[in-house]
């Protein structure tokens, strides 16, 4: 670790202890999360505490929560102990993890790099081994990006399958409650509690789809990753399950409503046009829903917002409802197209983000290039509402490298089991590839 053990890496807003309810007839050992600690993003209601939404003006103008979000209560009831609230990006409107008011949590595996946001404190608390798991939210990528940046596991479940009650909304068409862990077993256990799943046997994937075009746009050699994925899948399930696809072409052919969002300027020609269009549709609907949720507060309070964030929030407040119907059509068409591609037990493997985490205080234009490519990848599961888990598989130039597995809507239990099965093999194969390239 880069810092002293007694440091909290700037992850925590406030520390407190919420114990699980006292055991009844069953002994505490039988509770699935007994003995585990967790932290919660400052977007979840905890009774008696103000939910700050990452902004001091929000905290100042809102009173303490009168009840605790059901997801927080669920993991407490399963035996886990909450140790506090953690920092987030203001109003959940960034994937960087930098907060102008409360400071930027330090990325434990790359201290000079962004931790990723908006669930920055949640990811850092887990990566720094301050807690066993943490709760965050993911609208545009706020679980998956910090998981990738901090070299840990992060799960964005199927949309609308985990309760968002008692969680400040950002954009309901995309909002999900997600979680982080360093260990796939814990990730799975937390998932079974939040998804209310019983233990089921792992099912072998019917096919594993590799979208070669997504890997070709990485800032590290793409074959380093695709080779690791192919070798791992072949070792566990056989070569017959591997399928290759050009996801950009598949999406543009299967989602006719995307035509409206295609960029004809060639400004983003270094990336996949249909995925850039997909992220444009996502951000259009996100802006509109954010405005519906929060414009009254923003225009009344005129909060002090950090650089970059302020422009984004006011752009949302001034947005109109034109094209919103087309955005919803894009969502419906994409979910149908990916359901056809994946069927019951198929998996799509994508890079979580386009490369290593950018350096802290990177200039806006360079950060925008990273954001544009990242949102293209993130919008696949984000817009379709499918479940996705980001898996750290190693480092390249001493910086974390992750891939993601995506499964159909509602296949969360299958996906979590598969992550558990594949995790160690992916890491082993990555190390083998590293030795071979030395």
TrEMBL record:
One Pfam family hit: Amidase
InterPro entries: Amidase_CS, Amidase_dom, AS_sf
All residue ranges annotated as the Amidase domain in the record: 28-416
Keywords assigned: Transferase
Molecular function in Gene Ontology: hydrolase activity, acting on carbon-nitrogen (but not peptide) bonds, in linear amides; transferase activity
Family: Belongs to the amidase family.
Protein name: Glutamyl-tRNA(Gln) amidotransferase subunit A
Organism listed in the record: Thalictrum thalictroides (Rue-anemone)
């Amino acid at each position: 670790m880069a810092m002293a053990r007694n440091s909290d890496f700037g992850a925590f807003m406030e520390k407190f202890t919420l114990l699980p309810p006292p055991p009844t007839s069953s002994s505490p050992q039988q509770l699935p999360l007994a003995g585990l600690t967790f932290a919660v993003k400052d977007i979840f209601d905890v009774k008696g505490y103000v939910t700050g939404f990452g902004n001091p003006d929000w905290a100042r103008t809102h009173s303490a929560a009168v009840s605790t979000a059901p997801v927080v209560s669920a993991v407490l009831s399963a035996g886990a102990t909450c140790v506090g609230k953690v920092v987030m990006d203001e109003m959940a409107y960034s994937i960087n993890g930098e907060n102008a008011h409360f400071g930027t949590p330090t990325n434990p595996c790359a201290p000079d790099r962004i931790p990723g946001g908006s669930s920055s404190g949640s990811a850092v608390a887990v990566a720094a081994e301050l807690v066993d798991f943490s709760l965050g939210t993911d609208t545009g990528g706020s679980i998956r990006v910090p998981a990738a940046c901090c070299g840990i596991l992060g799960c964005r479940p199927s949309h609308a399958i985990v309760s968002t009650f008692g969680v400040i909304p950002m954009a309901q068409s995309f909002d999900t409650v997600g979680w982080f862990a360093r260990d796939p077993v814990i990730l799975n256990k937390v998932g079974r509690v939040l998804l209310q799943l019983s233990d089921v046997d792992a099912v072998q994937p019917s096919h594993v789809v590799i979208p070669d075009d997504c890997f070709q746009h990485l800032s590290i050699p793409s074959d380093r990753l695709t080779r690791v994925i192919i070798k791992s899948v072949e070792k566990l399930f056989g070569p017959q399950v591997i399928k290759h696809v050009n996801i950009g072409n598949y999406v543009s052919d299967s989602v006719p409503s995307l035509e409206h969002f295609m960029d004809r300027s060639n400004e983003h020609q270094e990336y996949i046009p249909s995925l850039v269009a997909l992220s444009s549709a996502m951000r259009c609907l996100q802006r509109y829903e954010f405005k519906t949720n929060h414009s009254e507060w923003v225009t009344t309070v005129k909060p002090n917002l950090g650089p970059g964030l302020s422009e984004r929030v006011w752009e949302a407040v001034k947005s109109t409802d034109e094209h919103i119907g087309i955005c919803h059509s894009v969502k419906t068409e994409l979910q149908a197209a990916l359901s056809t591609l994946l069927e019951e037990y198929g998996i799509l493997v994508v890079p979580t983000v386009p490369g290593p985490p950018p350096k802290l205080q990177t200039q806006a234009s360079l950060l925008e290039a990273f954001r544009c490519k990242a949102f293209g990848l993130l919008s696949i599961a984000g817009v379709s509402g499918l479940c996705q888990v980001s898996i750290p598989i190693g480092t390249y130039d001493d910086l974390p490298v992750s891939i993601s597995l995506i499964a159909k809507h509602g296949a969360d239990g299958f996906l979590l089991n598969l992550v558990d099965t594949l995790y160690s093999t992916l890491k082993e194969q990555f190390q083998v590839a590293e030795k071979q390239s030395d």
